[in-house]
Every structure is written in C-alpha cells, then in structure tokens.
Amino acid sequence: MKYLIYAFCLGVTTTSCNEFLKKSPDANDLYNEEISKINWNEVDEPAGLVLCDSLFTEDAKTNCLQETLQSQLQTNLNSQTIKTIDLNVNEIWLALTINPDSSYSVITDVTTISNAETRQNITTAVNQLITELPAAYPAIKRGIPVRTQINIPITFVKE
Fold this sequence. Notes:
Elements: H1 2-21, H2 27-37, E1 48-49, H3 58-79, E2 91-98, E3 104-109, H4 116-129, E4 136-137, E5 139-141, E6 144-146, E7 148-155
Antiparallel strand pairs: 1-4, 2-3, 2-7, 5-6
C-alpha cells in the first residue's frame, strides 16, 4: 500500500511539472486574434429612433430611421428660403453622423456647387436643421455605443 501511495505521488509530481513547462499564450497574440474576429463594418444593434422601435426587423428599423431623417430634413429645408446663386444641381448628399452621445453631425457634399456664397448658405442651413432632428440613439457594437454614418439625399426645388 505504501508503494502505491509513493507511486501515485511520484506520478502526480511528474505530470504536474509538465503544466509549468507549457507556454502561456501571449497577451498581444490573444488581442490580435480577437480583433481579427470582429467585423468592423457591422454593428450588433443599429442606430434608431424611438418612433421606429415598434418595428421588428433591423432592416425595417434602419429604413425607418433613414426615411424619417430624410423626410424631416427635406421638409424643414423646403420651408426655408435659402439664397442660391447659380444653383447648378438639384440634389446634394449629406453624410449625417449619429455620434455615440446621440448627437448629430453632418458633412455636406457641396463640392458640385460652383458658387461659394451658395455653398456657404446651404451648409449653414443644413447645420441649423440638424438641431431640429428627433433624438436618435446610437448604434451598439459589443455593448459600446459607436458612431454611425447615414448618407441622405436632399433635393432642392427651384422657385
């Protein structure tokens, strides 16, 4: 019986030493492996509006968000009189960003407008309009609010 206990103890000590010889994974390797698994072009939960929460699918919520924001911007823009000189386009694209703090920011693509004063008037009007948009909540990626950009066409009506 004594020999059996000695043999058991000897077996445990020799096999447990192998555990110390194994190399632990490098933290940078684990980090890089996890980072490579993340699809940075998709979010877990898209940005949205309270108005669109009753919809069930993510595509429907995203479409509701885009259509609501476009409609709101277009309606507000049509109600304003913007001084335009030689407006050679009837549509511009806004890169509307919903920031992680639920605020909006916008990049207006006015490069196709030739007149500097008209470009400035449109940019000023659009920046003023985004303050009137309904409150949105940001997209979520791995539990963290992230920035989302939506491209919205705005059409100008010449009078």
